[in-house]
Amino acid sequence: MHNDLVAALDIGGTKIAGALVDGSGGIHARAQRPTPAREDGETVMGAVAAVLGELRRSPHWLRVAAVGIGSAGPVDASAGAVSPVNIPGWRGFPLVDRVRRATGGLPVELVGDGVAMTAAEHWQGAARGYDNALCMVVSTGVGGGLVLGGRLHPGPTGNAGHIGHISVDLDGDLCPCGSRGCVERIASGPNIARRALEEGWRPGEDGDATAAAVAAAAAAGDPVAAASFERAAQALAAAIAATATLVEIRIAVIGGGVAGAGEVLFAPLRRALQDYARLSFVQGLVVAPALTGTDAGLLGAAAAVSPRLRGGAAATAAG
């Protein structure tokens, strides 16, 4: 029996998901637990151990060669530690060592969740066939990752491509990260909703004041809701164009809950890119919605482990 599976973990503030993933992206077992995000670090680790324990009971576990982890960040891959903003009990938590011990000494690879999504999209999604790509998660926060020269580029700590904290408004609002005018402060779901409410938009009878409700109102013709999405699209376009100018990406892939707004987001984003991506070598940049959906974190955690898993995406490179 070949050791041809990766045990993948997708760790976020809401859930801890696990799966056994093969070299074609097939999933052979799954496990999931809610994240006890407000509990102490050992309680959170207990949920991770429970997911791993369930996977280890699968008859396929004997085929597992390594473990891949995609975690909410910041992460420090060089130290094997995580400090997710939305899991306060984990600050410098030695996750790689603890997972290695929980799996009997298997090799463990750690990347940030934005990098994991990027690995998934390059392997199985919209960035497949591109050598140079930026992939973004636009949701409660804004994260991302890079593919450069046909290879995932996580950087020394596993955070490269964290585009949400590029400043696009020098005199903008103070961001929780400590900077001003960050993309995340303008384009994340909660901030799209916040801006719409501040400008006079009001939710319907159901009281739904989320970005999804703002998107629905924008699609129905509400000018204030549409303006909030246009502002978010402008911030994303400025950051994407800056990234393309710096490293010559050929495609920007956008996933996450806010991308679910569809053309409410993508139409003004493509228009704004025409204003920001002016140099000849960044014109013609492709913008596309992500394709890997809710399994992106698991597929990406698996792909980050093994270059063999990513080989198919680079084989027909177009970018």
UniProtKB/TrEMBL annotation:
Q: PROSITE patterns from the entry?
A: ROK
Family annotation (InterPro entries)? ATPase_NBD, ROK, ROK_cs
Enumerate the Pfam families for this protein. ROK (PF00480)
Family (UniProt): Belongs to the ROK (NagC/XylR) family.
For this entry, the protein name equals: ROK family protein
